[in-house]
């Protein structure tokens, strides 16, 4: 199986640790991933801001870049949903590629069939189900099953977990007041959970939650799910 | 919707609401309670998904053949002794109703909650011709007494708490006891006494319509308080105003919606009062019945392939109650009697997307999808929001800054080389802006981010640079 890694522009630029974690994790599970360097962005930001025409070349580029692979794995539920739900509607040439794109936890559970990835992560962790993982991809219990199998990890419940954190792409700028108010409530829920780490399948939401937490002086860290799953006793993340 | 002209765009209107702690507490409490109850009410039915699909299909079928069912409805209502009027827009509808009321010689009318009449600003139009309209729905009454605007479809006074309502009754309701407490039972009793006098003297009533059954010419109203039933039966003249999308083909279609609507809106298995009426019946109820069929932008909405699904809406307000944006921004920020997610897609369609408030509404969502999940007729609200954003960019007021940013981002992201270059620029700036791993102030439009949140410092090396340097980790 030829597996391509779709890293997403945000992870690539601001959160490279997440990508390295995916590579390490999959290598540990015995799979080589390729990184097609022609990749850039799924076009979500443009589509969601109303710039649908500017999004079209990105969709075409994505389809061309990833067409040769059997599977595409990405550490972003939001971008996976964008590709699967929207790409075929924007460009019919994307239709055969779209179903091959899997968010990391889907890829692990559904494609590779693993739950225990051999990770070790001795922290109190809360999981935030990002809206797109919850309602567009419907990843359901997959992330939780993976987390429960992590050695040393203490999974705590996040109050009102399925409420949006308020990021929403350019919503965070266009409606900054409402977005911030939502972020403050999410950060309060994270603190109330008693976790020292909050994780999710999207760095975009974590960036928003993390930025709110540190601004309010909370010591709770935000960590992408992939980095938790990649951590071992020998190589903690 | 004349009442709301000149509203500021959503972000500005929402800012005040976000800052109003009491409002946010009222909203969080009310929506949080109903949200949990709705989930429980829905979970009781194991065929909910099938019901939802049936609701979607019936509505879509009706909308596809709207001309046919509306003509059938007109025919049946007329046969039953009613008079049907067609109104292209708000002005026409108001003119029709005002003339009908004036022909009776009355100067007061009672009303049972109707979104359509709020949409057209009927109360104001009546007032301009010397007719006073009395709202009889408790929440509407609260809004009316406070010279306020409704902020929720089902609970128009959701933004008010009990103490505020008591103060309002004491000040503005003739005959309210001076020692009125804020106990719900006492408040309801005061309103009941106040309204009873209106019902007994009213000769003319104006009603809304939840559903209209084309095959029999029957109109249906669902309510909780029974005041609507008084409006529908006591007066001599009844004028019902309905948006043309409310029609259903057949009586048996009601079965689906009488399950979907109460569970989605009030989390009840069945609403307390369901009234149906068909034309006139000599010696029983109003002797004079008029039905005003309101277009007001609906056929234009129907022409939009993606956007038309908004016309499936049965005004249950489930999307409002689950919307995290509504819960913080409040209903008034949407600048229309239709607030929340449905307002964000309906108002810009029926009014057109030209004004600043309408162009801002499709952006009043984080696209979290909670509304779609809750909607009993499966309106894909995020899809329509994204669709309308594209229309706003094409036809609405331009935002030069956003245009430029999007063009620049598009140009950068079209090429991996240019993306890599931008990443290097970002990394090189990290020492200038970073402090303890977080950026506390970004320049330009990005300041909206760092006003309240820290931003991450760009790492020294992007992922693609790392991959290149180490061959995907194979080289140290
Ligand atoms: S859009 Fe759906 S959820 Fe919202 S009010 Fe209409 S029917 Fe109810």
TrEMBL record, chain A:
CC terms in the record's Gene Ontology section: cytosol
Cysteine-rich domain mapped to chain residues: 3-83, 125-209
Domain of life the protein comes from: Bacteria
Matching InterPro entries: Cys_rich_dom
Pfam families in alphabetical order: CCG
Any one Gene Ontology molecular-function term assigned to this protein's record: oxidoreductase activity
Alphabetized PANTHER family for the sequence: LACTATE UTILIZATION PROTEIN A, UNCHARACTERIZED PROTEIN YKGE
Name recorded for this polypeptide: L-lactate dehydrogenase complex protein LldE
Species in which this protein is naturally found: Thermomonospora umbrina
């Amino acid at each position: 199986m030829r597996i391509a890694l779709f890293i997403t522009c945000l992870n690539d630029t601001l959160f490279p640790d997440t990508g390295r974690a995916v590579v390490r994790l999959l290598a540990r599970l015995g799979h080589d991933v390729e990184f097609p360097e022609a990749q850039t962005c799924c076009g979500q930001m443009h589509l969601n801001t109303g710039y649908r025409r500017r999004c079209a070349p990105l969709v075409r580029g994505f389809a061309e870049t990833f067409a040769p692979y059997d599977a595409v794995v990405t550490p972003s539920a939001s971008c996976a949903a964008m590709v699967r739900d929207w790409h075929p509607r924007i460009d019919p040439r994307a239709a055969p590629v779209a179903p091959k794109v899997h968010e990391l936890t889907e890829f692990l559970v559904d494609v590779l069939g693993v739950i225990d990835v051999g990770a070790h992560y001795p922290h109190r962790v809360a999981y935030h189900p990002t809206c797109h993982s919850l309602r567009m991809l419907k990843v359901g219990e997959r992330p939780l099953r993976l987390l429960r199998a992590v050695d040393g990890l203490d999974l705590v419940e996040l109050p009102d977990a399925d409420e949006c954190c308020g990021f929403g792409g350019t919503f965070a700028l266009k409606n900054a007041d409402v977005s911030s108010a939502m972020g403050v409530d999410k950060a309060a829920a994270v603190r109330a959970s008693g976790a020292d780490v909050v994780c999710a399948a999207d760095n975009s939401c974590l960036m928003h939650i993390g930025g709110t937490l540190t601004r309010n002086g909370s010591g709770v860290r935000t960590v992408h799910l992939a980095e938790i799953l990649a951590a071992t006793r020998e190589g903690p993340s | 919707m004349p009442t709301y002209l000149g509203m500021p765009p959503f972000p500005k209107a929402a800012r005040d609401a976000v800052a109003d702690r009491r409002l946010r507490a009222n909203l969080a409490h009310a929506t949080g309670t109903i949200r949990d109850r709705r989930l429980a009410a829905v979970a009781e039915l194991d065929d909910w998904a099938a019901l939802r699909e049936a609701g979607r299909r019936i509505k879509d079928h009706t909308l596809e053949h709207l001309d046919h069912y509306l003509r059938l409805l007109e025919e049946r209502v007329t046969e039953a002794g009613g008079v049907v009027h067609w109104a292209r827009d708000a002005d026409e509808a108001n003119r029709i109703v005002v003339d009908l009321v004036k022909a009776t010689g009355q100067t007061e009318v009672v009303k049972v909650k109707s979104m359509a009449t709020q949409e057209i600003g009927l109360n104001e139009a009546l007032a301009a011709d010397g007719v006073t309209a009395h709202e009889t729905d408790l929440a509407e009454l609260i809004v009316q007494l406070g010279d306020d605007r409704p902020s929720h479809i089902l609970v128009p006074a959701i933004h008010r708490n009990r103490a505020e309502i008591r103060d309002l009754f004491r000040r503005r309701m003739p005959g309210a006891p001076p020692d009125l407490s804020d106990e719900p039972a006492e408040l309801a009793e005061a309103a009941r006494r106040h309204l009873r006098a209106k019902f007994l003297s009213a000769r003319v009533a104006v009603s809304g319509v939840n559903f209209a059954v084309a095959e029999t010419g029957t109109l249906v109203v669902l309510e909780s308080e029974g005041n609507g039933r008084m409006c529908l039966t006591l007066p001599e003249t009844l004028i019902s105003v309905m948006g043309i999308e409310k029609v259903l083909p057949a009586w048996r279609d009601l079965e689906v919606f009488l399950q979907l609507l109460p569970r989605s809106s009030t989390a009840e298995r069945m609403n307390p009062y369901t009234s149906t009426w068909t034309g006139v019946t000599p010696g029983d109820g109003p002797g004079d019945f008029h039905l005003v069929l309101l277009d007001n932008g609906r056929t234009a909405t129907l022409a939009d392939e993606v956007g038309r699904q908004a016309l499936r809406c049965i005004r249950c307000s489930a999307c409002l109650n689950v919307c995290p944006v509504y819960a913080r921004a409040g209903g008034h920020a949407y600048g229309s009697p239709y607030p929340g997610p449905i307002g964000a897609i309906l108002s810009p369609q029926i009014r057109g997307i030209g004004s600043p408030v309408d162009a801002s509404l499709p952006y009043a969502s984080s696209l979290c999808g909670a509304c779609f999940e809750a909607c009993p007729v499966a309106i894909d609200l995020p899809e329509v929001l994204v669709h309308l954003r594209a229309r706003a960019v094409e036809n609405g007021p331009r935002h030069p800054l956003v245009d430029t940013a999007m063009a620049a981002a598009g140009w950068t992201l079209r090429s991996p080389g240019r993306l890599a270059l931008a990443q290097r620029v970002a990394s090189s700036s990290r020492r200038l802006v970073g402090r303890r791993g977080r950026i506390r102030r970004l320049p330009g439009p990005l300041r909206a981010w760092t006003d309240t949140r820290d931003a991450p410092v760009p790492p020294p090396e992007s992922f693609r640079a790392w991959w290149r340097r180490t061959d995907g980790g194979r080289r140290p």
